[in-house]
Each structure stands twice: as structure tokens, then as C-alpha cells.
């Protein structure tokens, strides 16, 4: 694979100071059969820190390896997914595995392809639950950074909503247990609250 299919050329930007090492990391799964793509993706994103946490890179080079890593890491924030690997639709099979077989709606999926004709963008976006679609020939280091940051923000927001939903569910379950196990006191407490609100 020629270098122009890894990243397009761009002007370098001046470096700011290195951020402090984070305590936790956002997990990013890179699925691509080209070793160079893994290496250059890690290089482009190695210093990225989002909300005090850096990135943990996990690599897979085939459908089977991708499935194994997905099974092993249920907390993936982002999947950078090549379309064409051992088959023309390998990446699409992986996307379906994440969404349909594992039921993971939280992880963000960015499809990257060196052969857009094999998986036309409109058809892929309509038929598969992915979050972004990028041609490798157009993907500069800066554009990759922007896409990754956007995906991480979306993942963060989704997980915050999920956490709030679980907390609310736990509160409702506690109230339900209280009403079931000790209804008279619960009823009296509810009545007092209602009277307080009315006064």
C-alpha cells in the first residue's frame, strides 16, 4: 500500500506543551489488514488527551480477530474500521457484529476505506449503523484527529445519559422495594411530602 493511502499531506502545526498523563484511557479498536495503517494511526493520535484521559489502542487485522477483541473489551469508545480486508465487506460484517450480535449501541464506528467503490458511502450509511465514513485518500492526520474527538464527545455524552438512566432505575427499584416491604411507612412519607409541597 502506498503512503498516500495512509494519510494525505498537510502542513505541520506547532506543538503545544505535552499534557499530563491521564489516569484512565479511552479504548480505540483499529481494525485494518494493513500494518502501516495501525502504525500511522497510533502515531497520529498517541498524544491525544480528552477530558484528562489518553487513548488505549487495540489492534485487529481480520474479522475473527476483531470479533475476539470486541468480545474481550465491552467498553470500546471508538472503532476505526476498514471495509475491505479478507473479503470486500469484512468491515461491514464487523459493524453488524458490534451492533446486532453484541447489542453495543454506545461505541462509535468510523468506517475507513481505501476503495470507496467497494462500499459506496450513501448505501453504507443507509444500511449500516455507523457514525462516520472516511476515504483514506482524503483522511489527513488533522481530519482523523477531528473525527476521533467528535466521536469521543458523542461516546461520553451517550455514557452519561446511560449512567443517569441506570441511577434513576436503581432509585425506582429502591422505592418499589420500600413500598413492597414497608408500605405503611412509605405511604406516610409520601403523604408528608405531598402536604409539604401543597403548603
From TrEMBL:
Entry coiled-coil feature ranges: none
UniProt keywords, alphabetically: Phosphoprotein
Phosphoprotein in keyword set: yes
Region Disordered: start-end pairs: 1-20
GO biological process, one term: phosphorelay signal transduction system
Domain Response regulatory residues, every copy: 27-151
Positions of post-translational 4-aspartylphosphate modification: 82
The keyword Cytoplasm is annotated on this UniProt entry: no
Protein name in UniProt: Response regulatory domain-containing protein
Source organism: Pseudidiomarina insulisalsae
